[in-house]
Design a protein that fits this description.
- The complex is a heterodimer of chains A (338) and B (96).
- Chain A is an alpha/beta fold.
- Chain A is built from 12 helices and 9 strands.
- Helix content of chain A is 35%, strand content 12%.
- In chain A, helix 2 packs parallel to helix 3 and helix 8 packs across helix 12.
- Chain B has 96 residues and is α+β, with helices and mostly antiparallel strands.
- Chain B is 40% helix and 30% strand.
- At the A-B interface, helix 1 of A face strand 2 of B.
């Protein structure tokens, strides 16, 4: 089905940031809020109608912090009436018993809660809000008690690089799954300030050798598949996945800062099928990547086209981050590296 | 079973993609794709239509003989119910 969605350009997965407002102020956050007004309730419902008609099934709501929107449950319940498989990304700090009940009633496919460390001081230093760890963990517990599928984790950085085993144990104890991403990204406007927290290559090597991290590489069906799972398609962006900002801008992916149109001006189908930028991204094949297609590290590569574009401003260039990671993976798996 | 009504479980998400229903079981996050007959059955399961009526509609839509339809459809509906994708009830169900 995923291969068919990619072939037929069905936007099976959509990541929709409902707001860029957040009650935390994480040191590594990539979100850049603008002065434009965010989408209103009716606008969002209209967009959901369009996504359902276009074939979107998996709908991830994120932000910012989704529960800062007073209309969140009105939106979430509307999405469920449209039969989306809804996933929520949240910091969990605004979840109390009543909110947990309403989240459970949505029957979400998954709720992912950001937990950066099992050490409360470390976590709160990253979020810069004292007490946030306790509230986030409590949210995870309240939701697992209500049989909601919860995933905890976040992104690895210098501040928490040694904490992930204990976050994994914490996940096991509360009945949640675990995922931590070793990749920090620049801000959406290209500012590189979050990268000052990037872990060292030595730490990255250590992490990649960990069995804990290997399953997640297979967890995302839209990632790069150099083995040709989706033919020559570099990844699912613009083929079977897209991203919508809280201002209605449509992008090939949440990681891909190339606006393809705005839903306040054009219908989703028009942008998805006819936007020049979307068509350009969609036209790129692995064999057209002049450096990557000849690279000996291709079997180990997890190139994100969006990150490559963010790093180099070029849709066809290698991604510095992906090259570093492929080198490390190659050495771990005996390929020798380059 | 044929007097029971069938309804898509509210523990599912689904979408018709290219004429085929893709159904996600939200309890375990598995998904499956239904063929054209399965998709038709899925769409008829509105909480008000009995299994017997659904099977009759399958016969009309796909020009299948009643005995074959009865056996195959009953088995299929039973499978979906066992997986928690369909709910079977002796009484009409709301929100189909």
């Amino acid at each position: 089905m995923l291969a068919r969605a990619a072939r037929k350009k069905i936007p099976f997965f959509c990541h929709f940031d409902l707001t860029y407002h957040c009650n935390l102020n994480c040191v590594h956050c990539y979100v850049v809020a603008e002065s434009r007004p965010e989408l209103g309730t009716l606008e969002i419902k209209g967009i959901l109608n369009q996504l359902a008609a276009a074939g979107t099934l998996y709908l991830t709501f994120s932000g910012g912090e989704i529960f800062t929107r007073e209309d969140f449950f009105e939106i979430g319940e509307y999405a469920r009436r449209l039969h989306f498989a809804v996933r929520l990304l949240t910091n969990g700090t605004l979840v109390d018993e009543a909110v947990a009940d309403r989240v459970a009633a949505l029957s979400p496919d998954l709720v992912a809660i950001s937990i950066y460390s099992a050490n409360s001081e470390n976590h709160d230093e990253i979020t810069t809000v004292p007490g946030s760890f306790a509230r986030s963990i409590e949210a995870a517990k309240m939701l697992t008690e209500r049989n909601v599928k919860v995933k905890i984790g976040g992104v690895l950085m210098r501040q928490n690089i040694n904490d992930y085993p204990k976050v994994y144990e914490l996940a096991q104890r509360i009945g949640a799954t675990f995922q931590m991403d070793p990749r920090l990204t620049p801000k959406n406007d290209g500012a590189r300030s979050p990268l000052r927290f990037q872990i060292s290559n030595d730490d990255l090597s250590r992490v990649f050798a960990e069995p804990l991290f290997s399953p997640q590489s297979r967890d995302n069906p839209t990632k790069f598949h150099p083995d040709g799972t989706f033919g020559q398609i570099p990844c699912g962006a613009a083929h079977m996945s897209c991203y919508i900002s809280s201002y209605g801008d449509v992008y090939p992916c949440v990681q891909f800062p190339l606006p393809c149109g705005n839903l306040r001006k054009e219908p989703f189908e028009e942008i998805w099928h006819h936007s020049a930028e979307m068509l350009k991204v969609r036209s790129i094949t692995v064999s057209q990547l002049p450096v990557c297609c000849r690279c000996g590290l291709l079997p180990y590569c997890n190139r994100c086209p969006g990150l490559a574009y963010l790093e180099e401003g070029d849709l066809l260039s290698p991604s510095t981050t992906a090259c570093q990671e492929a080198n490390i993976l190659s050495r771990i798996k005996g390929g020798g590296g380059e | 079973m044929d007097k029971y009504v069938a309804k898509n479980s509210d523990q599912t998400a689904h979408r018709i993609v290219d004429g085929e229903a893709v159904v996600v079981n939200l309890k375990d996050s598995t998904f499956q794709t239904l063929n054209s007959v399965g998709t038709f059955i899925w769409q008829q399961a509105d909480g008000r239509t009995s299994v017997k009526e659904i099977i009759q509609r399958v016969c009309q839509e796909f020009e299948v003989d009643p005995d074959t339809a009865d056996k195959d459809c009953s088995e299929f509906i039973g499978e979906l119910a066992n997986k928690g994708l369909l709910v079977l009830s002796p009484h009409p169900l709301e929100g189909g």
